[in-house]
Write a structure and sequence with these properties.
Structural class: alpha+beta
CATH architecture of the largest domain: 2-Layer Sandwich
CATH superfamily of the largest domain: Pseudouridine synthase
Oligomer: single chain
Mean pLDDT: 90
Low-confidence stretches: none
CATH class of the largest domain: Alpha Beta
Shape: elongated
Radius of gyration: 21 Å
Order of helices and strands: EHEEHEEEHEEEHEEHEEEHEHEEEE
Strand content: 35-45%
């Protein structure tokens, strides 16, 4: 199978990743299904996690900086009374306690500490490179790693239900915020310890899990580069503008920020940045 004509230069495939597979391998299956060698994905999901994984094919891999910065919504279960070294159910148990005195009011109060912008220590079992080595590789060999503390953000917390030690939560987070670290830190605030399980990413920006396919080869889940950038302001170029942008030149325009620059037929030819006076192409997908 090959990409359709509207996506001949590249595409974004909306995959609903199943648990038990790495994001890299899942993206590779999609690329193989469409006969594309160059591929990537926007935002890594843990192997045990499921949900929205935008797979970037061909020239659409150049859109990664724009698609990975979107807010993401997750549903997961917070398991009170057990903390693990990974922050999820796959890890080694570090602490076990009795959370019987914790109720919904206590959880809601704890969530206030993780609403808005806050500091978050990156999990030891993460893909972040520390001294040139993946943190999870160091953690698996028992090597100590001083993990950085970074700004994280979370909004729109929803407590769906609480059944004993299991709390069903939903949250929207900014780029670089780890759900496993949220579970770890909420457990510390509650004084019970906690870990996350059943992590499912239900949206990435405007891409929702309802639009995704669990199979790697469904045409309905394939987006052209222009469709993938639909959440950004766009500018339709005339023939002169198309030629100028194709050569890397800027054009006049009062827009600011990231702009999807479209050919007269609607194809995405570049992504630019406007300063209020001119729009400068930053990522050119089609050169003249």
């Amino acid at each position: 199978m090959s990409l359709p004509a509207c996506c001949s230069g590249g595409a974004v495939y909306l995959l609903s990743k199943a648990p038990g597979i790495t994001s890299r391998r899942a993206a590779g299956r999609v690329a193989a299904a469409w006969g594309v060698k160059k591929h990537g994905h926007a935002g890594t999901l843990d192997p045990d996690a499921s949900g929205v994984l935008p797979v970037l094919l061909g020239k659409a891999t150049r859109l990664s900086p724009y698609l990975t910065g979107h807010d993401k919504t997750y549903r997961f279960s917070l398991v009170l009374g057990t903390s693990t070294d990974t922050g999820d159910s796959s890890g080694r148990v570090l602490l076990v306690s009795d959370p019987c005195g914790i109720g919904e009011a206590d959880v809601l109060k704890a969530l206030q500490s993780f609403t808005g912008s806050f500091d978050q220590r990156v999990p030891e079992f993460s893909a972040l490179r520390v001294g040139g080595v993946r943190a999870y590789e160091m953690a698996r060999t028992g090597l100590p790693a001083v993990m950085p503390v970074r700004k994280a953000s979370a909004t729109n917390w929803i407590l769906h239900s609480m059944d004993g030690r299991n709390v069903s939560l939903e949250v929207t987070v900014g780029a670089g915020t780890y759900i496993r670290a949220l579970a770890r830190d909420i457990g510390e605030v509650l004084g019970t310890g906690a870990h996350a399980t059943g992590i499912c990413r239900t949206s990435v920006g405007s891409f929702t899990v309802e639009r995704c396919s669990v199979e790697p080869d469904e045409p309905a889940s394939l987006l052209s580069p222009a469709e993938a950038m639909d959440g950004f302001p766009s500018l339709a170029l005339d023939e002169d503008g198309l030629l100028e942008v194709g050569h890397g030149g800027s054009i006049r325009g009062s827009s600011r920020g990231t702009i999807a620059m479209l050919a007269p037929d609607g194809r995405l030819v570049a992504v630019g940045r406007g300063d209020g006076a001119r729009i400068h192409p930053v990522t050119v997908l089609e050169a003249s």
